[in-house]
Amino acid sequence: MRTSYKIILIGYVFSCFLSVASADEKKEKAINTVQAPEPIRIIFDTDMGNDIDDALALGLIHAFQSRLECRLLAVTITKDNEYAAPFVDIINTFYGRADIPIGVVRKGVTPKDGNYLRPVIDATENGKKCYPHDLKSGMDAPEAVELLRKVLSSQPDHSVVIVQVGFSTNLARLLKSEGDKYSTLTGTELIRRKVRLLSIMAGCFCDINGKPYPEYNVIKDLNSAQQLFENWPVEIVASGWEIGPKIEYPATSIENDYRYVKHHPVAHAYQCYLKMPYDRPSWDLTSVLYAVRPERGYFDLSEPGSITVNESGCTIFTPQPSGKHRYLIVNDSQIIRIKELFTTLCSQPPDAKPLR
User: Fold this and answer.
1) Stated pTM of the model
2) 184 burial class (0-12, 13-18, 19+ CB within 10 angstroms)?
3) One-letter-per-residue 3-state SS of 212-274
4) Segment 269-299, tens digit of pLDDT
5) In sequence order, which residues have a C-beta less than 8 Å from that of residue 337 and are 6 or more positions away?
6) Is the peptide bond before 277 cis (omega within 30 degrees of 0)?
7) How far is it, in rounded angstroms, from Cα 291 to Cα 161?
8) 300-334: string of b/e by CB count within 10 Å (b at 16+)?
9) Domain 40-346 adopts which CATH fold?
């Protein structure tokens, strides 16, 4: 009798053990099957070559992609210079993502080379190019609006964030575009279906020296900027001119943090843009940061409203509860966090196994 009782007891204990083990296995399986957030799908529209913050912003996007936080679908260029696209290709290649498509504006503005495009492209050591790349001229790249339509048409609905840090030329033309081989939708319809946010570096939302300030990205293609803010069908969050000077990228980072490789295209471009050492406002990087991490407290937002552009190129914000436009606001504690983030991520080494 006692033997039978022991057998029953042992069986009961063993069954309890199996139940606990089974529960632990289920818990572990549940933990392992939790999916990471979908990387933000980004199109980067830039006037690469006019200022150095464009190059830093593209490096920041690649750092975020290496952390699986975003996926760069395409780069489109609003600077009408044949060397802008090869320079973008150099950066993409450096980060191990040479297959990212690049589109260029035709009959755009600011055709001059700028201070850093040619020096980086032409850099050699011992008779070899310092920065290998395939795209030799912007003339060999597809037109920007065609590429935008192609990329957008292939994306899930309401999934794309466009980061515009140059002129509004390409996106204003996209708005006006008609159906084509990629989609029967008009440009406005395609944007409304595929894009969920435009994070844009444009305008100024405070007076400078007591007067409204006509910001560079707006006034260089004024008509396109007016059309974009008037007709863009989904949410816009603008980073105004006033944000950039509060968050300067330090020369000490360029001099010290990029030395893990002998030739770094972003650091090289920074050194060519102006006489070193200098700290440069981080205008374009702020629009990238908000696009990828909008809910991490790096910025505050204005109330909803509408942004219009007057004939002088000044941006006027009118509060409206149902408005689709906001602009970024930053305080002192946020500035410290953002500066630390920019220097850490912009100088982050490329992936050994990039996400592409």
Assistant:
1) 0.89
2) exposed
3) CCCCHHHHCCHHHHHHHHHHCCCCEEEECCCCHHHCEECHHHHHHCCCCCCCCHHHHHHHHHC
4) 999 999 999 999 999 999 999 999 999 999 9
5) 298
6) yes
7) 7
8) eebeebbbebeeebbbebeeeeebbbbbbebeeeb
9) Inosine-uridine Nucleoside N-ribohydrolase; Chain A (3.90.245)
